[in-house]
Write a structure and sequence with these properties.
mainly alpha, 412 residues
Length: 412
């Protein structure tokens, strides 16, 4: 299967390392860094036989380049000098993966193979997470080992869940003989993912995946009313069972009804801090990774200098803003924020342009729907968490890069 998916020995080497990266990305720190480096080296080495990888340039290259250059600008002109270059290297690392994928001439089977590795790697990491959570007690909560914090693990899981659902949506469109072969396997994986996502109890990730799933079901009604109706009823039944079985996830959602900012974990106060940090350097921000330097003492000083009243109850110190958008505004300024919005707009626009793929039954549907999941999960969960960095940054850009690679081929 692996060999048949690839066009050349060179591509086999590249995709082997990329598959290794996706398999170990949520699980092991050192192996994922080694796999990333080997993929980049193999890809650059491939320019010998495909020189247009270097010299071909189109609109999509502008998108990736603008995103990287905006981050570099922020690092150069940050108002605080500390961790900004480390933050830039993270942006460079995950953006390069997507950019290289977008510039590669892979077949559709290769893209599907990569997406299969995303799901397989997540399942392995989940099993490891349950081992540490349930059996050994090393972790007090369910986490993906290399991703870390439960909110970030949940975002990664939601992204992978969207990829899994893309395979399910494609699978139910196939002939009945194929449906019978793997139906229960897909259902088992979906239940495993669903229980795990609710166990992590990250409201942002759960809401983001729910938005994606609602969009899929709505579109599904145009493909097959019967299948969509069954999927809707089944989803409601399963969700009700999950709510009863995992009460602490339900309790976190009910907490959102608490008066004041406590129900939203003080995110309004963090947004106020981000805004004050942005006022320090509106164009370039305080620098990636420097949010913690926006202290209440600094805010109070700046308020005094401007003749404004400082109310400490409106602010809360933290290492980040718990929002992709407010964090980007504070750390990368209006330039970095604009680059982020540009990425969202072109990502969404390209998917909308090729929305007819939803009604096909070939493997392009898997790639398209996975990219929809990447877009929705990343930028909806970004309302509540910093959802585009390190591991889930790499996964988001893989989903984007796979889609752009397919989109480019379709428009040539």
């Amino acid at each position: 299967m692996f060999a048949n998916a690839l066009q050349s020995t060179q591509q086999r080497v590249e995709v082997f390392f990329l598959c290794m990266l996706l398999l170990v990305l949520p699980l092991a720190e050192a192996p994922k860094n080694i796999a990333w480096m080997l993929f980049v080296i193999a890809w650059l080495w491939g320019m010998r036989s495909e020189p247009d990888r270097l010299f071909r340039w189109d609109f999509w290259d502008n998108v990736f380049a603008c995103f990287i250059l905006a981050s570099a600008f922020s690092a150069f002109f940050a108002s605080v000098s500390d961790a900004q270059w480390g933050g830039f290297l993270d942006v460079l690392r995950y953006t390069l993966v997507g950019w290289m994928l977008a510039r590669s001439h892979y077949k559709i089977r290769t893209y599907v193979l990569l997406l299969q590795c995303v799901v397989a790697g997540t399942i392995i990491a989940l099993i490891h997470g349950y081992w540490n959570f349930v059996f050994t007690g090393k972790r007090g909560v369910l986490q993906l080992h290399s991703v870390g914090h439960v909110n970030h693990s949940a975002i990664y899981l939601a992204l992978s869940f969207a990829v899994l659902m893309a395979f399910v949506f494609w699978y139910v469109r196939q002939p009945d003989v194929v449906k019978r072969f793997g139906f229960w396997g897909f259902m088992t994986c979906c239940l495993f993912y669903g229980v795990s996502l609710l166990e992590m109890a990250s409201r942002g990730a759960i809401l983001a995946f729910a938005v994606f799933w609602v969009l899929v079901v709505i579109a599904w009604f145009r493909v097959s009313f019967k299948q969509a109706a069954m999927a809707s009823v089944l989803s409601v039944i399963i969700m009700a069972g999950f709510i009863i079985a995992i009460p602490h996830a339900t309790a976190k959602f009910l907490q959102m009804g608490v008066a004041g900012s406590e129900g939203f974990s003080h995110r309004d106060r963090l947004a106020n801090v981000a805004y004050e940090g942005w006022r320090e350097n509106p164009v370039a921000g305080v620098g990636m990774g420097n949010f913690r330097h926006i202290t209440l003492e600094l805010i109070a000083l700046r308020k005094e200098q401007r003749g404004e009243v400082f109310d400490p109850e409106r602010y809360l110190g933290s290492n980040h803003a718990h929002s992709l958008y407010m964090n980007t505004l504070a750390e990368k300024g209006i330039l970095g924020f604009s680059a982020l919005l540009f990425l969202i707009i072109v990502w969404a626009g390209s998917l909308w342009k090729k929305r007819n793929l939803l009604y096909l039954s070939d493997q392009r549907l898997i790639v398209w729907l996975s990219a929809v999941g990447g877009l929705v999960v990343t930028f909806v969960s970004g309302l509540f968490n910093t959802s585009l960095h390190t591991e889930h940054g790499i996964l988001s850009m893989v989903l984007f890069g796979v889609w752009v690679g397919l989109f480019r081929e379709a428009n040539q």
